[in-house]
């Protein structure tokens, strides 16, 4: 009978747990999201907004005629495994919607369809008038690169206090004019968190 008690307690705790769906269109619902030490939705959204605003307001796009951006390497140098497209997608979407720049999706193997379609030239099954002519692809004239860094610092306020960790994330980004090879915009945005269960290597 005694062996059944821990099992019963475990089942009761599991029954109390529930999953809550967060409505990202509801600001108050987003504000109630539990804080975590890892990078999450609010971090990506806020940082992408700051970076995009900084880029547009810098006037960098006015220095290049008809800016077309190639997304270069965005390195993840943190203890977490995540696809950096989570961040860059938000940035590029805002840039395109703002009309500030266009994104070269046919560059760096992101979308090979532009090249795949051109292999249909001289294929009698296709109306050749619908196939893109040679010399129509637009090459990028700018590139966006960056890195996400992480630094962990131990915190302790007293002899008997528990040890927490401050996790400092830094997103560094650079916009380069490909014609000159010079940086036309750079910025760094920090994301600072304090608590326990910090991501470590």
What is the compact description of this entry?
The chain has 201 residues and is an alpha/beta fold. It is 27% helix and 27% strand. Helix 3 packs across helix 4.
Record keyword descriptors for this entry.
201 residues; alpha/beta; five-stranded mixed beta sheet; 5 helices; 5 strands; 27% helix; 27% strand
Write up what this structure looks like.
It is a single chain. The chain is an alpha/beta fold. It is 27% helix and 27% strand. A 5-stranded mixed beta sheet has the order 2-1-3-4-5, covered by helices on one side. Strand 1, helix 4 (85-98) and strand 2 (102-103) form a beta-alpha-beta unit. Helix 3 (41-57) crosses helix 4. The longest helix has 17 residues, at 41-57.
N-to-C terminal Cα separation, in Å?
A: 43 Å
Major sheet details: 5 strands, mixed
Strand order of the largest sheet: 2-1-3-4-5
Please compute the radius of gyration using only Cα atoms.
24 Å
Helix content: 25-40%
Percent of residues in beta strands: 25-35%
| Shape by Cα distribution | elongated
Low-confidence runs: none
Number of strands: 5
SSE topology string: HHHEHEHEEE
Number of helices: 5
Report the mean per-residue pLDDT as an integer.
Answer: 87
Class computed from helices, strands and strand pairing: alpha/beta
